[in-house]
Amino acid sequence: MRAVAKTYGVTGSALRNGRRETSGEGRKVAMYLVPRLCDWTLQATADYFGLSSYGGASWAGSQIRKKRDSQPSFQRKLERLERLILPQ
C-alpha cells in the first residue's frame, strides 16, 4: 500500500477507504496488486478495501489488466511497483 500510495501521491488510508481525493487508478492498482502479491482472496481484498462484495475488487483488477495489456508504459509502471513491493 505504501508503494502504491507514494506512486500516486496519496495516503494509504485514502487508497483503502476510497476518499474523494484518492486517485481512482491508484485504488484500482492497489486492489489489483494485493491479491496478486499477497496471495489474498478477492473477498479478503474486498473486505480490506471496505467493499460490500468481492465483485468490486474483481472489477478493479479487470480494469487494470485491460489497461496493462493495452498500454506498455502502464505495464512498466506496474512492474516497477511490483519490484518495489517484492524485490528479487
Can you give a write-up of this model?
With 88 residues, the protein is an all-alpha fold. It has a single domain (2-85), classed as Chromosomal Replication Initiator Protein Dnaa, Chain: A (Orthogonal Bundle). 75% of the residues lie in helices and 0% in strands. The protein has six helices and no strands. The protein is globular, with a radius of gyration of 12 Å. The two termini are 18 Å apart.
Question: What topology emerges from the helices and strands here?
Answer:
Blueprint lengths: L1 H7 L3 H6 L6 H15 L3 H7 L5 H17 L1 H14 L3
Helix pairs in contact: 1-3, 3-5, 4-5, 5-6
Would you count the extended β strands for me?
0
Say what the CATH topology is: Chromosomal Replication Initiator Protein Dnaa, Chain: A
Domain module tally = 1
Shape field:
globular
Give the proportion of residues in helices: over 70%
Distance between the termini: 18 Å
**CATH architectural type:** Orthogonal Bundle
Strand proportion: under 5%
Instruction: Report the total helices.
Output: 6
Mean pLDDT: 92
User: Helix/strand/pairing class, anyone?
Assistant: mainly alpha
CATH superfamily: DnaA protein, C-terminal DNA-binding domain
Query: Major sheet, described briefly?
Result: none
The CATH C-level class name: Mainly Alpha
